[in-house]
Every structure is written in C-alpha cells, then in structure tokens.
Design goal:
Elements (H helix, E strand, L loop, with lengths): L5 E5 L7 H6 L4 E4 L4 H9 L4 E4 L13 E4 L9 H6 L3 E3 L6 H16 L2 H9 L15 E5 L3 H12 L3 E6 L12 E3 L3 H7 L2 E4 L13 H7 L3 E4 L8 H10 L4 E4 L19 E3 L10 H16 L9 E2 L4 E2 L1
Parallel strand pairs: 1-2, 1-3, 3-4, 4-5, 6-7, 6-9, 7-8, 9-10, 10-11, 11-12
Antiparallel strand pairs: 13-14
Amino acid sequence: MSMAPIHVVLHPQRPPGVEAFLRSVPQIELHSPADEDGVVRALDAGAQVLATFIWKDAFLRPTLRWIAGMGAGIEQYPLAKLAEQEVALTTAAGVHAGCVAEHAFALMLALTRRVGEAVRHMGRHHWQALPGEELAGKKLAIVGLGRIGEEIAKRADNWGMQIMGVKRNPGGYRGCVTDVRSAAELPQACDWADILLLCAPAAPDKRWLVGEDELTRLGAGWIVNVGRGSLIDEPALVRALATGRLRGAGLDVTAVEPLPAQSPLWDMPNVVVTAHNAGDSPGYGPRWGALFQQNLAAFHGAGEWINRVAARAGATQ
C-alpha cells in the first residue's frame, strides 16, 4: 500500500530554486500560498511541514510537525514552544556557505576598489577615476568561524590576506585560520584589522557586538556584515561613516529589514547595501533540496536528521 503524501507549505518568501525542487518530489503535496494568511490556512487544513526562514507565532498550529528551515539562523524561532509541541526544526546551515563567502568578497571589493562610488557616478554620467586599494596584504578579522566564516577564510588565504578569527569557543576550532581569538578579544581584533567581517549569528539577546568603541578601534578601516543586522550598533555605524572616521561599510543585513527608506545609509557614498541576498543563487535550490530529501526520510523514521536543532539548547545535531 502506498504511503499518503506529506503536505508541505512553502512560505511565499523563499530562495531561488526551492519551489521548483519541492514540486519535483513525488512523496509530498506542495502548498504554495501567496501570503502568510495562506500559510496559516494551509497548516490549519492539515499540513505537517513548513518550509520557511521567516517565523510568525501564528504558524505554530496543532498539525505542524517539522519546520524545514531555509536559513542558517534560529534566533527567530520559539525553541521552547517547539519542544513542547514536539515540532522538529532543521536549518539550512552549510547550504549557502560558499555563496555567502563570495558575496562577502564582492562587498569587500566594492568598498576597497570603490565600485560602489563608481556606480553612483554612472547615474550622473560622471567619469572620474577612483584609485582603489588591493585586498592582498590587508588584515582581515573574521567574526564567526562557522561554515561561512571558514569559506571566507579559505578564499582570503588564497588572496594573500592576513587573517585573524574571532570565535565564541576558539578551543574547539579546527580549520585553516592559525590565529583564533575569543569573543572577549574582539576589541584587540578591531585594533589590528583593516577589514572587520561579521558572519556570526545573532546574540540570544540580540545585543550588538560592534559598537562605538569597536568602530573607533577599527579606525580608518572597513566593515562588512553578512551575518545579522543586530550585530552592529547602527546609529554608531552611521556616525562613524558620516565623520569619515570609518572608510566604508558593506551591508547585506541591517538592523531593520527592509532597510527603511529614511535611513541615511542609503545615501552614503561609502556604503554598499544589498538586500539580505548573500546566500541566494540558482544553486541554492538543489543544495537545499538534497538536505530536505535526507530529512524527509528522517521524518518518516528512515534515517538520521541533518542540521536538526535541539529545541531547548539551540544546538544542531
């Protein structure tokens, strides 16, 4: 006797290729609502699986049994409530590590080679040579040495950059960076660095890691954030950029998303902003899909979960 299909709800905001992959899976029946009210309706109609990277408390319906996360972060999810309702949560950690690393380099190059400024000149049909600087030899401090940070470090080493890592638990690190400091040494990393690159998850209390003191210590350097917008004290960042103390910022994430139209960051010539899309590429869907297939088997009791979050501890299995 054939097994009944699993009903899967896909959030209307999703990375490229995910919907096409899910439609190719014969063991599921896909629901792709146009809005979040439709997500709730599909769950109320009996769907057991939600594919999303956005969380709303209204999604925690009695039928929900598995959240197939499409992002690496977990700070948006109510872990204790998921544990109480016995809802499995998996993440996409590692799926977009290489893609985000390339995007981080795109932001670094846009700043150091002054590409962001040149694009603004294009809008005015203004021809002006803007001599940039080379990444080779620059001192790069990477805050967060998970899978994304490691991919950035590998590429930076090949570019001839000097690398320092900052990690919450440096004693357990096994990777290519030879100088790895604890989070308590972030101020010293800022003193040392030409470029401070953030790819860490948000702190549990959403408190920033980089504030006035860290930006002052970074001095005439650059900051790039492909982690979470909450990692930076944004008003302090705006002040440092406006005074010229900080040379530039490349931001794929901001404190409020979408970045409000009135934010001064939009109009600063030494800022490059992208819309939290560092992990998006045509390759995302197939890579996420391979992970989904393995976890779908686990959902049926036929294998081990990958990237499953221990709901109370917040640790992946």
